[in-house]
């Protein structure tokens, strides 16, 4: 049985559900190292600003309210380590019904998940699997003008980033309308004064989205729907900006944070000689504009907008949502779940 501390997980004895997942290469024990799935280029330390720390609790409360059930597998998204955010587990709260816990990263990176196995849950009993993380977040400053001028749109994106230049759920990157709009915006930018550098070209796309798409709370919309409606929330604005970036070959994706999402884009920079590296740059999609930096400390949950989850093989997901499976025992029903995702006030 899993020891109650994740730090003492040297001898995990995994329940059948998790054993099967490991056999398929879909899950790694808690102590295993993660793979980022993309070029490992650290953010320029000069661009890291003020540091803030939050306690963030995630998990699931699972109840056999309809009668006894078994073979429960709960999947919960955890805060994500990234160049400007570090995550440390500081407290675990697992009820006795929880047999095993393991972590995994989805292929390609961008999502960290906790896998919770409950072999049997008696009628009326609530199982608890909660993890509190200490999340240290740096504000991110945009690059200096001289440094930004050296960045360029990659002629050939690294293999691991090619999925961020094509279409994904709700981002119709290959649609001709987006391509024509992006070209029109860049042509307008070049007609007023000197021709912009690649940083300026991406910034022109960003400014066009913010100036032409009104902000309003509402349902998530795709890039094309946002373009048609002329109004959207943070998701719609982000999707349109990402779609325009991809239409001209700039790798871009969504970043999902607590109660919000925003876009980020990738530009290439020379690292010496004939070698090139690159970096992701965030942009704010609501409130005060911020291009190339992030002035607000938010807990990052996922980076990306096209995920494959082993338990849902036929679906391509823009967000790897929390997930629960379980089977009713005779006289019982399927379990009910309440997911927990909250900032903990100290």
UniProtKB/TrEMBL annotation:
Q: Which Pfam families match?
A: Transglut_core (PF01841)
Q: Which domain of life is it from?
A: Bacteria
Q: Which Gene3D superfamilies match?
A: 3.10.620.30
| Domain Transglutaminase-like intervals | 226-287
**UniProt name for this protein:** Transglutaminase-like superfamily protein
Taxonomic path: Bacteria, Pseudomonadati, Planctomycetota, Planctomycetia, Pirellulales
